[in-house]
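Researcher: Here's a chain I'd like modeled. Treat it as a single chain, no partners, no ligands.
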Amino acid sequence: MDVNNNFIIVSLMVIFTLCITLSSLIELNVEGQREDFTVITPNQSNTSNVEKFEIYQNSQYGIKIEYPSNWLKTEPGSTIGIDPYKQINVVTFSSPPNNDPVLMVIVANKTAGTLTDFASEEINQHRLIYPDFNLLKLGNINLDDNPGYNFIFNASDANGKFNAAQIWTIKDNKLYLLVNTVSEHLYPLTWPTLQRMINSFEIIN
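Model: Modeled as a single isolated chain. Structure tokens:
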């Protein structure tokens, strides 16, 4: 009888250990997917094969960036936000075939506060605008070798679910902001191209 009891106890301990191990592996896998959210390799995209890039340069706002030659470029020069976070939408790049705006380059001639101040303000505003705002990633980054900050999120608007990223830096009391917004199903297709554009960004003043 004692032998049977010991066998049952040992068996239960083995089963319990296996359950804990499997649970840990599943959790690690989920975390790994979450960390790799923004990592898309070129062979997953048909837009990363764009061979010809052109250079956009704006001496008034002191910026330079590469963009695919088959993308639409517009310079709205429109004002976004209110003081102390008033910004100018200098240039917008839109991808074919529908010419949906994908990347905006925004400059604020003067800015108040620090990078983290701006991050808090932006996140709070987005939470108000989008009820289903979901912050995916937040942290430090370099933009043109300058200390910067970024956050990545998803939300919904009238056109459906979308993914978005904001990357910014402050230099000489000016704010430089790159805003990427794309529908959820197109995100994996456009991200490799956007990475090249973001990596090419330069502050030339």
